[in-house]
Amino acid sequence: MQADKHSEKTPKNTGASGGIILALIAFSGFPVGDAIIKSMAGDWPAPAVAAVRFSMGAIALAVILFWREGRAGFEISRPWLHAARGMALAVVTMSFFSAIYIMPLADAVAISFVSPIFTALLSGWLLKEKMRPGTWIATIIAFGGVLIMLRPNVAAFGWVAILPLFAAAAMSSMLILNRMVSSQRSIFAAQFYIAFWASIFLCIAAIVGHFLVPAMHVPGAPDWHVLLRCAIVAITATSCHFLLYMATMRTTAAAIAPIVYIQLIIASVISIFIFDDPIDPLAFVGGGLILFSGLFLWHSERKATTVIEA
What we know:
Structural class: mainly alpha
Largest sheet: none
């Protein structure tokens, strides 16, 4: 009987461990894609790079969706909601790509981690979810960390250093919108719709910026290495998102959530050893506060969920 019980538990534990490993691989891959984008600074403007990257992703996802679901996969309801998701993703992408063009990768990634705080605030406002005391504490700590991190960056780069904050706010809006459509379509359809609309908005932004904003002027057709790097980012980012989806099929979201902060460690290593961007001691303190606030929020939410289930 004891052996039977042991054999029943083993597959479950193995599945959970497998989910955590998949999440670890996925979150480790995102900073690598960010580093590839940063390497294109000076070669092509950020909105144009983003437009090419998501156009490639949308085409690939359209092929996959048609192969798996046929024409039925492209039939949607409430298209405005998917367009809003695409708009939010376009803002996230333009803001974050522009940020990593001009500031250290580790700093931009750390500031963008305030996104869970924005999500908690937006959930309370838009979805009428009650804000717990732990959420308010995490919010105060996180924004304290953001202010500390922004001080050296604003001094060095000007107010464009707040671009990661715009990216974080837009990411939170996208997550809220994703929750509103999570039960409508398959994961392939959801990925395609958001990439499709994001590519449209990014193409519009790139064209408008080309004529109106000097820093967004497109000097000409991209070189082959720009297209190659955009394709690599499209493949790696899409693969990472699918790995995360597979991870959630094997273990809980609560188990996966803290792993996201592996991105900050990898981004810091890349900043120091590849881009020669030293980490400012003050920024290090601010990043630590943001990291602590995220883990504190995760722990408080997990504890509250456990109490409710009990």
